[in-house]
Each structure stands twice: as structure tokens, then as C-alpha cells.
Amino acid sequence: MISKKLQDAINLQINKELHSEYIYLSMAAYFYSNDLDGIANFFSVQTQEEHFHAMKLFNYLLERGGKIELKTIEGPPIDFKSHVDVFEQTLAHEQYITKSINELMDMAIKENDHSLVSFLKWYVDEQVEEEATASRLLARIKIINGNGQGLLMMDAELSQRTFTPPGSE
Ligand code: OFO
After folding, report:
1. What is the pLDDT of residue 166?
2. Given this structure, which CATH class describes domain 4-70+80-158?
3. Contact indicator for 116, 13 with CB cutoff of 8 Å
């Protein structure tokens, strides 16, 4: 049985992952309305990833005999200043999520919850990838600096992204 303190922290992390899903859905909408459907596709696939992150925690908590307590999902940003702004917000958000996962890991270590420590390692690794992707795309959109040809190339590349549930590839 998991402790009440860790149960609360996992429920909060589920909320943060669902909030991430909502944020990326808003970013997808921004790019769809700017006729960059490929970049919008990237964010759309990201929403599926975030849903997966939330559900993985959800299923784990149930397996541990914990209680799921879903909370209100905060609204996402809906106005973006520029394409660069979207990617800056993406990187900042992923850094925030990394911090949150690390804090959860610290709590699990402190409580000697070996199962949770082992489970969270997947998220620690995943966050390395999340930050690296956000950082690479931010650098590229800055290089493109509004150049139409560069933007269309990035759009074409990101249109290829599909969602593959981790563990099934
Ligand atoms: Fe769930 O990693 Fe992004 O937010």
C-alpha cells in the first residue's frame, strides 16, 4: 500500500500531465490556425504522449491500491506572441515537469518506497528526451527566424511524427 503523502503527490502529477496535454492541444490549435499543419501535428502527437504519461501514473496508483483523486485541469495559454514564443513556452514547461518528477522521486527515496523509485526512473529518462526535443526545436525555429522556406521544411518534417506508445516500438 502506498502512503497518503505519495498518493497525493502522484495525483498531483497526473493533473500536471493532463495539464500538459491541454497546453499542447492549445499549441496545436495555434499552428493549425497559422496553416502550419505539420508543426500542429507535432503538438497533436505530444498531447497523446502526455495522456500516456498521465495514464501510466493512473494505472500505477491503482495497482498500488491508491485512490485516484482527479483535480480541476487549469486552462492552457491561448494567445501566443510568435512561433518562437510557443517553443520557448514548451521548453520552460518541460523543465518545470522535470523538476516536478525529480521532487516526486526525492519523496519516494525519502519514504524508502522502492517500487515507486523504480517506476519513476522511466519518467526521469523520458524527461531527458522531452527537454532535448523542445530545446532542439526551439533552436531550429530561432534559426529559421520567420523564413518561409525554412518554416515549410520544418513543417514537412514534423508532419511525419506519429504516436507510438512506449514499449510497443
Ligand atoms: Fe509528460 O512530459 Fe511533457 O509535459
Report:
1. 76
2. mainly alpha
3. no
The SS3 of residue 76 is coil
Q: Is 112 left (phi over 0), alpha (psi -120 to 50) or beta?
A: left
Domain boundaries, the chain: 4-70+80-158
- Whether 97 lines ligand 1, by a CB cut-off of 6 Å, is yes
Measured over the CA atoms of residue 116, residue 117, residue 118 and residue 120, the dihedral's sign is positive
Tell which atom from ligand 1 comes closest to the C-alpha of 17.
Answer: 1
Where residue 20 falls among pLDDT bands split at 50, 70, 90?
very high
Atom of ligand 1 nearest to the CA of 53: 1
pLDDT of residue 165: 83
Q: What is the pLDDT of residues 73-126, one digit of tens each?
A: 999 999 999 999 999 999 999 999 999 999 999 999 999 999 999 999 999 999
Q: Is 20 in the pocket of ligand 1 (CB under 6 A)?
A: yes
- The x, y and z cell numbers of residue 132, run together, are 532535448
Nearest residue (by CA) to ligand 1, atom 3, is 94
For the Cβ of 86 lying below 6 angstroms from any atom of ligand 1, the answer is no
Q: What does the alpha-carbon distance between residue 14 and residue 53 come to, in Å, rounded to a whole number?
A: 8
